[in-house]
């Protein structure tokens, strides 16, 4: 079971459908717009002291929200100037035109020169929102550039103008906001870079759209949250024992021994009942002396390696960390995948198939989780588009769950579902953090958590563990902070 509705990410098209569905259910469009603009005004009053406000309004619904926000702020005693793009008012017979008509004060033409009137004030960006389909031009482009060059704070309505709501891309030029207020649900552009960096904090305001519209239009993309996967999280049971909590096997290499050790310890911390590290005989003493709660078994050739895999109680494998890019790594990976058990493929287990990805894709399944960073991803996947599109295509092409790492990690299922993780602090950009993540995924899968859910849960816990530490984090620290992250998870209320 997986719930993607509470944190669903709606494309601009899906949000338009949500508006229409709400209106069809009896909620007037003008009321939705009034609620949206009032929410913007309330958030501004909550965060800033009274000051001059310039409201930059476009000709569409985003501009309509701006007129409403201007009216409420003016009624509350704020000095407000409304500027329309190229002197255009919203089209007649629209909700935006209705609310523009309720603004009984002057409307000036938008220009960069107007910024001189609010040097100590605030700008509300209600130009385009998520509906922009082409780069800003003319007065809009000049205004965006001048505003970005100033130090005037910006509150964006829906999305900073110039940011694509579908994928977070910048269309020519985009505003840098200090606050973004969106409605009902976030869009992919709020959580994918570079859009995410331009939004500042994003507040989601509820404006009267009922959640009942979601099943008809959402369910494929969501922001990562315990709401998504907590129903399948494998908390220890009173009647459980180590054998009921699974047995993870991590494959170690000859030289970069730290990577596999991190993965093995992370699998144990994530709850696997037993963890074995399979080590080449020459490196066996290194692993055996460094690990206490982890069993270490040696192998000397493919036949002894095969015997390690034969035990069906070993129900999940981790292959790749510290193995090196080689034919040997490729062969070990294929031996493991041939067992048709759950498997996490990381780092060198992916890169070793550079130039022959079809061999990898023929062997993996929905029981497999691939965890590449962008460089490793490019070695085996020849796909283009946004990060969300590329992860989805990779999962569909390979038939495996794909976790494409980064500041905006995307987890994609072959059936098209995708999750964007947003809780990872920048401190996670450190060597070995990915090895820990691979082990955590395996530890959850060992306990029976479905691969997609396990990848989402491990990613969230990984970010929470890093948040617990803060600056100065190294990968070893993450191992010790997994219990703290699990304690936080226990306390998280779930919708």
TrEMBL record:
Superkingdom as given in the UniProt entry: Bacteria
Q: At which positions is AMP bound?
A: 405-409, 434
Which Pfam family, giving just one, matches this sequence? YjeF_N
Kindly state what the record says about how the cofactor is bound.
Answer: Binds 1 potassium ion per subunit.
Q: What keywords were assigned to this record?
A: ATP-binding, Isomerase, Lyase, Metal-binding, Multifunctional enzyme, NAD, NADP, Nucleotide-binding, Potassium
Residues recorded as binding (6S)-NADPHX, renumbered to this chain, are 61-65, 129-135, 158, 259, 322, 373, 435
What's its EC?
Answer: 4.2.1.136, 5.1.99.6
Cofactor(s), by name: Mg(2+); K(+)
**Ranges for domain YjeF N-terminal:** 15-215
Supply the Gene3D superfamilies for this chain: 3.40.1190.20, YjeF N-terminal domain (3.40.50.10260)
YjeF C-terminal domain span: 225-489
Binding residues for K(+):
62, 125, 161
Task: Show the InterPro entries listed in the entry.
Answer: Carbohydrate_kinase_pred_CS, CARKD, Nnr, Ribokinase-like, YjeF_N_dom, YjeF_N_dom_sf
Q: Which CDD domains match?
A: YXKO-related
Q: Quickly give the catalysed reaction.
A: (6R)-NADPHX = (6S)-NADPHX; (6S)-NADPHX + ADP = AMP + phosphate + NADPH + H(+); (6R)-NADHX = (6S)-NADHX; (6S)-NADHX + ADP = AMP + phosphate + NADH + H(+)
Q: How does it assemble?
A: Homotetramer.
Per the similarity annotation, which family is this?
Answer: In the N-terminal section; belongs to the NnrE/AIBP family.
HAMAP family of this UniProt entry? NADHX_dehydratase (MF_01965), NADHX_epimerase (MF_01966)
Q: What does this protein do?
A: Catalyzes the dehydration of the S-form of NAD(P)HX at the expense of ADP, which is converted to AMP. Together with NAD(P)HX epimerase, which catalyzes the epimerization of the S- and R-forms, the enzyme allows the repair of both epimers of NAD(P)HX, a damaged form of NAD(P)H that is a result of enzymatic or heat-dependent hydration. Catalyzes the epimerization of the S- and R-forms of NAD(P)HX, a damaged form of NAD(P)H that is a result of enzymatic or heat-dependent hydration. This is a prerequisite for the S-specific NAD(P)H-hydrate dehydratase to allow the repair of both epimers of NAD(P)HX.
The protein here is known as Bifunctional NAD(P)H-hydrate repair enzyme
Per the UniProt entry, what species is this protein from, by scientific name? Neopusillimonas maritima
Q: What is the lineage of its organism?
A: Bacteria, Pseudomonadati, Pseudomonadota, Betaproteobacteria, Burkholderiales
Annotated gene: nnrD
């Amino acid at each position: 079971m997986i719930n993607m509705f509470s944190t669903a990410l709606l494309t601009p098209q899906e949000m338009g459908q949500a508006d229409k569905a709400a209106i069809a259910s009896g909620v007037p469009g003008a009321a939705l717009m009034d609620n949206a603009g009032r929410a913007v005004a309330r958030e501004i009053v909550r965060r800033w002291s009274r000051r001059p406000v310039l409201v930059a309004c476009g000709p569409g619904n985003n501009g309509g929200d701006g007129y409403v926000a201007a009216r409420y702020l003016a009624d509350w005693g704020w000095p407000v100037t409304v500027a329309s793009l190229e002197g255009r008012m919203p089209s007649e017979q629209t909700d935006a035109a209705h609310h523009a008509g309720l603004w009984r004060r002057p409307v000036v033409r938008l220009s960069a020169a107007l910024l001189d009137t609010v040097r100590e004030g605030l700008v509300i960006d209600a130009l385009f929102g998520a509906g922009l389909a082409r780069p800003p031009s003319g007065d809009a482009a000049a205004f965006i550039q001048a505003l970005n060059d100033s130090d005037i704070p910006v509150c964006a309505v829906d999305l900073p103008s110039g940011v694509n709501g579908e994928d977070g891309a910048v269309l020519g030029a985009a505003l840098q906001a200090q606050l973004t207020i969106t409605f009902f649900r976030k869009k992919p552009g709020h959580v994918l870079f570079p859009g995410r960096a331009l939004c500042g904090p994003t507040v989601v305001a509820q404006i009267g759209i009922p959640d009942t519209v979601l099943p008809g239009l959402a369910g494929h993309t969501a922001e990562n949250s315990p709401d998504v996967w907590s129903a399948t999280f494998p908390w220890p049971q009173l009647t459980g024992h180590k054998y009921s909590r699974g047995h993870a096997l991590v494959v170690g290499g000859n030289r970069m021994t730290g990577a596999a050790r991190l993965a093995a310890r992370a699998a144990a911390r994530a709850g696997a009942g037993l963890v074995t590290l399979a080590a080449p005989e020459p490196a066996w003493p290194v692993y055996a002396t460094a690990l206490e709660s982890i069993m270490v078994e040696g192998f000397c050739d493919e036949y002894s390696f095969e015997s390690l895999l034969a035990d069906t109680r070993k129900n999940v494998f981790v292959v790749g960390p510290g193995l090196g890019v080689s034919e040997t790594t490729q062969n070990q990976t294929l031996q493991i995948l041939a067992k048709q058990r759950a498997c996490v493929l990381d780092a060198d287990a992916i890169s070793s198939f550079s130039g022959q990805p079809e061999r990898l894709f023929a062997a993996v399944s929905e029981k497999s989780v691939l965890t590449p960073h962008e460089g490793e991803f490019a070695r085996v996947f020849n796909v283009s588009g946004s990060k969300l599109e590329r992860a989805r295509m990779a999962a569909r092409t390979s038939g495996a769950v794909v976790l494409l790492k980064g500041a905006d990690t995307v987890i994609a299922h072959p059936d098209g579902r995708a999750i964007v993780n947003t809780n990872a602090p920048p401190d996670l950009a450190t060597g070995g953090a990915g090895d820990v993540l691979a082990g955590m995924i395996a530890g959850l899968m060992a306990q029976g958590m479905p691969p997609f859910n396990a990848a989402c849960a491990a990613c969230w816990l990984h970010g929470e563990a890093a948040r617990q530490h803060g600056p100065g984090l190294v990968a070893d620290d993450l191992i010790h902070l997994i219990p703290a992250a699990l304690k936080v998870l226990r306390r998280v209320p779930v919708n």
